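Researcher: Next entry: NADH-quinone oxidoreductase subunit H (Nonomuraea aridisoli).
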Amino acid sequence: MAGVLAADPTLADFGKDPLWITIVKAVMLFLFLALGVMFGVWFERKLIARMQHRYGPNRAGRFGLLQSVADALKMGLKEDLFPRTVDRVLYFLAPVIMVVPAFLAFSIVPFAPMVDLFGVRTPLQLVDLPVAVLFMLAMGAVSVYGVVLAGWSSRSPYALLGGMRSAAQVVSYEIAMALSFVAVFLFAGTLSTSEIVKAQEHTWFVVLLIPSFLIYVVCMFGEAARIPFDLPEGEGELVGGFQTEYSSSLKFALIMMGEYLHTFTASGIAVTLFLGGWRAPFPISLWEGANAGWWPVLWFLIKFVLTFCFIVWVRASLPRIRYDQLMSLGWKVLIPVNLAWILLVAAVRNLVVNEGDRMIGLGIAGALVIGVLAVWLRIDTVDQRRKEAQKAQVEAEFEELSSEPAAGGFPVPPLDLPHYHGVSRPPSRA
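Model: Predicted structure:
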């Protein structure tokens, strides 16, 4: 997947632009995200409709392209209500706190290498930092405060539960997401996004670190609160979750924009850290000028749109899971597997860097693989035995119940009969 090196930017190339070039790049990024949200809403509705053999939006404008514009105008002009019992200051600030960090998080995503922008040679990236990926994680964590404050300030039980769910969910899945980046840092030797893209000149990290990529994909849905992990706004049990008390006004539009921007950030980070960033895919990379000039913007956008299409496809295919399943997956599966994988990657890197410690590295890697398999089999066996014991206990209790005198010809269950998740109730006996 290697192409001709075309003036890859480094950290030294940032901070040297004239002020007006920085402003131009900031405006371009804002327009890309703002218009991308409007087009993304239309595209998601249209794509899901085609998956379900429907037309989707087709009335406002050609192919329904003006439907998102009409929705934005409606929400912007609709009367902005404040429920009587809300905390007015926090109720107003919560949507803003959700949107602003989402814009800032995308500022570290590189769109292309060095380009000629209005006669100035500059990297097509707003800003880069020695800890750019950590900055993105921090912005994602800050935006969760907006969700929590939206639920708490609404003074509604449904909204409060949605906010608490979001807080617990982001703690669980941001840890696993951060751990999935550690292997990338070990291979790239840096946390700078531009230099991580440079490190993928020959081979993309999705090939070298496929377990990290798969774990990130799962955490991406949990971090962005997308189906099947959209528990903070589960309308099946919480009406509308943290946004129950927000009517279809400008504040609701900001909440929608914040959610879509988190999805865009997750897609952009996936492209940057694992899919080669702006680098051309094989065999296009064989072309000498594939990674030069403005062509990398096209390759980045293609990867970005395909990643977003995958997120929409998952939404159209999978149902929402239970909250206990969400927590169990994050703490019992993703984090332990991530830790074991990081140790394995560190052992392999030790083999590559230190030739003299090859046998020690191989021994550590083999012991880790055997240990992970043993622990996995042990946990699976214990869990299976626990479920069988619960099922036998429930069947014994219902057997005892069916032998007792019935009231009116029907068995009467005791009031203190416990409920066991995941165990089906045997059919009642008349």
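Model: Note for the record: The longest helix spans residues 358-402.
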